[in-house]
Amino acid sequence: MSFVQFLINGISLGSVYAIIALGYTMVYGIAKMLNFAHGDVIMIGAYTVLTLLTGAGVNPWLAVLIGMVTCTVLGITIEKIAYRPLRNASSSLAVLITAIGVSYFLQNIALLIFGADTKSFINIITLPPVSLAEGQIVLTGTTTVTIIACIIIMTGLTLFVNKTKPGRAMKAVSEDRGAAQLMGVNVNATISLTFAIGSGLAAIAGVLLCSAYPSLTPYTGAMPGIKAFVAAVFGGIGSIPGAMVGGILLGIIEILGKAYISSQVADAIVFAVLIIVLLVKPTGLFGKNIQEKV
Amino acid sequence: MKNLFKNMNKTTKSNLLTYALVIIVYIIVQIMLGTGSMSNLMKGLLVPLCVYVIAAISLNLVVGISGELSLGHAGFMCVGAYSSSFFSVLTKDALPELVRFPLAILIGAAVAAIFGILIGIPVLKLRGDYLAIVTLAFGEIIKNLMNVMYIGKDSKGLHFSATDTTALGLEEGGKVIVKGALGITGTPKNSNFTIGIILILIALFIILNLINSRSGRAIMAIRDNRIAAESVGLNITKYKLMAFTISAALAGVAGVLYAHNLSTLTVKKFDYNTSILILVFVVLGGIGNIRGSMIAAVLLTVLPEVLRGLSDYRMLIYAIVLIAMMLFNWAPAAINWRAKIKAKFKKNNAKEAE
């Protein structure tokens, strides 16, 4: 395969990371917590869609929609039960460990319900592949849809955050929760909304991820989840364009690493990127350095 | 004698109780072994118990005392296990056991500590939850690298490869020591319960003394209020790094103990689930409570073996334990509620006394 082909595959994988990274970065920006369970919400979304497709024969579009609704409800519920009581806890460790607990809980509940065996995901994208440069480069339907979906989501979200009232409330809460509350912003509702959007996007990411790599296990979401977090840090945590750029760069690095170095150490390369970013520019590409006041 | 005990301060008493607990357990187990009243299942669990206890108290140093989260503790155990196992296999014929095993322990601890420093330096400078994610990444990197690592030895020295055994280019009679995903085979079985207990006592000695030293107080001051600690001149990175490195080294020791208990060492055992399991010990035993995490490690290792029927739900229960313990112990609402209940009890007691 040519370099350009690898690049395209990298952008495609990176777009999925970017969509997942959005969920991380928004929640981190607003609730100041690392939502470890985000990757597992992706897995739940993928299982929901697959079950609807194979078990009930639902129309693919409807299945994705139901998957999104399920994940949204799940996200809001997790926030309400597990994270909200700990929002004002004296140690930030408490909510972090709870998030790990939730992640572990989702994985193991999926293990009990769906079993440990690998399920093969049905590709619902029927778009025909496009050949470029006399067949040297192939854009599969999944690649095209993934990249387009990523662009639409990113644009939509940027507009939402900057132009609408709830979006601006999100920005306000992420900058100063106390001041936002005094200005009449409903902080609880805003944080719930953030979780809802992030989790809904996770369902889309799950479908796109499993369309490209069609093996689904209860642990499918964990690794992409962690990598998406790396992408979010890379781009600057809390920044929406940062998540997009970081995600795509990370996807390219991973695919090129797999192609030219070794497929077995590609994950190690991705994590090495994280450590290098933290060493050189801990605020990421688009991050702001905020001085803490006493 | 009685006076001496009375005059001791609270921490010394509590620390002595911890040591005594370990020694009492050791004596009871020895008696049970002597009278033959211990099942084979339990006998097989004795060394793993020591491994988990050491891992749990070392993680508690990071989580409880330093207030950071490490999700790669299994990774540190893995480096300790591999490096020491490699050393033991290499010098199996050259050194007597009495020299080799202590050296292996030191090597395991040192290698794990070096990795701890390498990770700690970039990460511990930062605020926020980066240590959790980087240590998690570290655990995965180690697992990845160990799976593709091949090391062989022949008369010319050591050969390394990242593809397969034939790529090592060994001459005839050469021996492959590390076989990629198959790991290391033929590690001498040097671990036993007595050595495990001695290592636990050493680990306890190091941790408890650190906690009550000047450095330990500095570490806890940083945990409680970073800005205040910084403003009185404490070097944040140095103290955090100290706690993290010591913890990594002790986890490495746990790995050494583990590796020398089995003849085959593979990387599979040191995955994310193991790191979480150790975290569950710490959380259930009480964050910052060294004795508690020891007890939790023992209970959670023995109980699942006894209650085999629950094995399908074990992980699920661990997850619920993590969430429930956190909500119960840290949520402001739960803390208020507990304070109310306590006050009520006191009132009732006072009324009865009247």
Describe the structure.
- The complex is a heterodimer of chains A (294) and B (354).
- Chain A has 294 residues and is mostly helical.
- Chain A has one domain (3-220).
- Helix content of chain A is 72%, strand content 3%.
- A two-stranded antiparallel ribbon of chain A has the order 1-4.
- In chain A, α5 packs antiparallel against α8 and α9 (222-235) packs across α10 (240-260).
- Chain A starts with a helix and ends in a 14-residue tail after the last helix.
- In chain B, the strands form 2 sheets. In chain B, strands 2-1-3 form a 3-stranded antiparallel β-sheet, with helices on one face. Chain B has a two-stranded antiparallel ribbon with strand order 4-5.
- Chain B is globular, with a radius of gyration of 22 Å.
- Chain B is built from 14 helices and 5 strands.
- Chain B has a single domain (2-306), classed as ABC transporter involved in vitamin B12 uptake, BtuC (Orthogonal Bundle).
- In chain B, a hairpin with a 2-residue loop joins β1 and β2 (157-161).
- The chains are: A mainly alpha (294), B mainly alpha (354).
- At the A-B interface, α4, α9 and α11 of A face α5, α6, α11, α13 and α14 of B.
